[in-house]
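Why should sequence recovery work at all? Because a backbone constrains its sequence more than one might expect. Tight turns favour small or flexible residues, buried strands favour hydrophobic ones, and helices have their own preferences. The token representation captures these environments compactly. In the example below, the structure is given first.
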């Protein structure tokens, strides 16, 4: 994937990462938690958050010429920070 924008903001909120994956546009939400945290980072995206991400994607498309031929996908990246060692990164495609 190629990153197009980071922390893109509009009145409705913020998109963490906008990227291209071939012909598809990817709207990516990134959630980070410490390993000792009770909640897994992937659990932080509720139905309400997913709806907001879809609205933000629509705003991005309005301002940047509409959807690409490959369509639009919303992904989630969860990062867990252990007390020691490297971060653990999980990528879920097409979550919303």
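From this structural description, the recovered sequence reads:
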């Amino acid at each position: 994937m190629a990153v197009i924008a980071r922390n893109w903001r509009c009145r409705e909120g913020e998109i963490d990462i906008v990227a291209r994956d071939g012909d598809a546009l990817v709207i990516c939400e990134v959630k980070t938690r410490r390993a000792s945290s009770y909640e897994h980072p992937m659990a932080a995206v509720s139905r309400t958050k997913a709806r907001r991400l879809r609205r933000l994607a629509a705003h991005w498309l309005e301002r940047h010429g509409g959807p690409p031929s490959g369509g639009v996908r919303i992904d989630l990246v969860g990062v867990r920070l252990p007390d020691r060692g490297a971060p653990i990164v999980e990528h879920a495609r097409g979550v919303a």
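A few observations help interpret the result. Residues 47-63 form the longest helix (17 residues).
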